[in-house]
Amino acid sequence: MKHRSDIAAAREGDAVIAQNGNLGRIERIVRPEPQGAVYLVVAAGRMLRRRYPVLSGSLVTTVDSSRRRVHVRGRRELLERLPETLPLVH
Q: Is there a contact between 38 and 57 (Cβ–Cβ < 8 Å)?
């Protein structure tokens, strides 16, 4: 079992685990610039109420690549309500 905080080990389809339980699965990994920030688009919630909040890669605490789990800081209820768009860059 390999645990690390390197966001590069995260893959689409990995489970995203908040501090108080399962948030959803990584739908897409977005890197707007090659050396810039990384964002995770997460499919969260049930089918009829599904949302796609965008999480900053800085929220990732550990990546368990063998179990395909990405642990993030924050409570599920708050993370589910994050915007579904990338932050604007100036």
A: yes
Domain that holds residue 20: 3-79
Give residue-wise pLDDT tens across range 30-55. 988 778 889 999 999 887 889 999 99
- Predicted TM-score of the model (pTM): 0.88
Query: What long-range pairs does 38-44 form, CB within 8 A, spacing at least 24?
Result: 38/7, 39/86, 40/10, 40/16, 40/70, 42/16, 42/79, 44/16, 44/79, 44/80
**CA–CA separation, 35 and 90 (whole Å):** 16
Q: What is the dihedral of CA 20, 47, 10, 64, to 10 degrees?
A: 40
Give a yes or no: residue 84 inside a domain: no
Per the structure block, which two tokens stand in for 73?
């800081």
Q: Evaluate whether residue 71 is within a structural domain.
A: yes
CATH of the domain at 17: 2.30.30.240
